[in-house]
Amino acid sequence: MSEGVHIVCPHCDAVNRAPAEKNAAVATCGRCGKHLFDGHPANVGDAGLMKQIERSDIPVVVDFWAEWCGPCRTMAPGYATAATELEPKIRFLKVDVDQHKQAAAKFGVQGIPALFVFRHGEIVARQAGSMSAGALKAWIVNATRSQ
Known about the structure:
Shape: globular
Strand content: 15-25%
Mean pLDDT: 93
Order of helices and strands: EEEHEHEHEEH
Oligomer: single chain
Strand order of the largest sheet: 3-5-4-6-7
CATH superfamily: Glutaredoxin
Structural class: alpha/beta
Helix content: 25-40%
Largest sheet: 5 strands, mixed
Radius of gyration: 14 Å
CATH class: Alpha Beta
CATH architecture: 3-Layer(aba) Sandwich
Distance between the termini: 24 Å
Low-confidence stretches: none
């Protein structure tokens, strides 16, 4: 029997083991009971971000953004659509750089929006600036495919 895939809950940060033969799209957290995936990017803070990127067995895409940032707001619908289409094979997160300066500083975010793809705690791709919905999805698929 397969050991499963480790997925971090975006609500309570618990690490869950989802059986590989089950559909992770309908899986719920063993601690809080909420769905592990809901088709939307999850807002996380400093500690939640680190747990997600270090403990998840699936690629984690992070959008560093701010409410006041026009390009961030322009790109947000495309990012949300990518989450709807690509979860649960990929985790989508958002980090507000005004509220979570430590996370932004840790990864050297100097301009926003800034996108990062992590795999097992390591940065495997990064992209600065806004992208169209199509370009964004293609970049995410390409960045996670080789991992």
